[in-house]
From TrEMBL, chain A:
Keywords: Nucleus, rRNA processing, tRNA processing. Signal peptide: none annotated. This is Ribonuclease P/MRP protein subunit POP5. GO terms for biological process: rRNA processing; tRNA 5'-leader removal. It comes from the Eukaryota. The keyword Aminoacyl-tRNA synthetase does not apply. Component of ribonuclease P, a protein complex that generates mature tRNA molecules by cleaving their 5'-ends. Belongs to the eukaryotic/archaeal RNase P protein component 2 family. InterPro entries: Pop5/Rpp14/Rnp2-like, RNase_P/MRP_POP5, Rnp2-like_sf. The keyword tRNA processing applies. Its main location: nucleus. GO terms for cellular component: nucleolus; ribonuclease P complex. Pfam families: RNase_P_Rpp14.
Length: 168, 124
């Protein structure tokens, strides 16, 4: 009844080479966000970030990041996402770009969307598969996309990952 | 001349003005040489940039008049930018490493209201 409402931004991180994806972690992303907000929206924006915002989920294999903002000012913080150009992680600078695909009120709705979205991405990847074995892998992964209790994540083809949602 | 009793008509404006006008004054801690109008505007923009970033500094406002010896000015800003501009003016503390402060004398949606000031009015 009386609870603090959040908005969860589901973002996809696009990097130029795949090795940069391994560098994704919560702290570097948060620092990059705060720097971008400080430049774009000044002290006011950086202060709004410190109230109830966090990087909730980071998946280094698929490049999915879930950001949590307060409902009161999530639009201002959302507008600073295009200003994030690189992430400093482990002493290296990784140029990247945040692509926001969905905004949900709870983590569960974001997960449901992510399953549907990953299935569409897999179907788009199918024509690019090079060998028959990879095609089989992708088809199997598409059929098994669901919110299950616990499933292992598997890598299938060169273009990397399947989008099966893992639940701990 | 025939004078007819004028009919009484009441006109109510519900915030008819798009702009707000602010009369402000810049006060320095020590004496210093007068500023030009461009430097004055640049000082306000730098204050906006510090508090509200690039997006805030891009908000349009105008310096309508400027007196470079008394360092007083009349600013014009859109209604939705008034709070940002006023808060940025409040938090400006220094100009080129010299401590200074902005005093806001009057704020009004109508420019005519800034011509009279009951604080400085002398009643004969």
């Amino acid at each position: 009844m009386v609870r603090i409402k959040y908005r969860y931004l589901l973002c996809e991180v696009c990097v130029s080479e795949r090795s940069g994806l391994q560098m994704l972690a919560e702290r570097p992303i948060y620092d990059a966000l705060r720097a971008a907000l400080g430049k774009a929206h000044g002290a006011h924006g950086a202060a709004l970030l410190s109230v109830g915002s966090s990087v909730t989920y980071v998946n280094a294999y698929t490049g999915v990041v879930l950001l949590r903002f307060r409902k009161a000012h999530y639009r201002l913080l959302w507008s600073a996402l295009p200003f994030v150009t690189s992430i400093w992680s482990r002493g290296q600078k990784v140029p990247c770009f945040f692509n926001c695909v969905h905004i949900g009120g709870t983590i569960r709705t974001c997960q449901k969307f992510l399953v549907r979205y990953s299935r569409q991405q897999l179907c788009r990847m199918l024509p690019h598969c090079k060998t028959e074995a990879e095609k089989q892998e992708v088809r199997r992964a598409v059929l098994s996309c669901s919110l299950n209790k616990f499933r292992e994540e598997e890598e299938d083809n060169d273009f990397g990952e399947d989008g099966e949602e893992t639940e701990a | 001349m025939d004078e007819e009793p004028s009919s009484y008509e009441r006109v109510a404006y519900k915030n008819d003005s798009v702009y707000h006008y602010m009369k402000i004054c810049l006060i320095f801690g020590n004496e210093r040489k007068p500023l030009s109008a461009e430097q004055f505007k640049q000082l306000i923009i730098s204050g906006l940039k510090e508090l509200y970033g690039e997006v805030g500094a891009a908000f349009p406002f105008d310096v309508l008049t400027f007196d470079q010896f008394v360092l007083s000015a009349i600013l014009r800003v859109y209604n939705n930018g008034l709070v940002k501009l006023w808060s940025a003016l409040t938090l400006i503390g220094s100009c080129e490493n010299e401590s200074c402060a902005f005093r806001v004398t009057q704020v009004s949606p109508f420019l005519l209201a800034l011509s009279g000031n009951s604080r400085e009015m002398e009643v004969q």
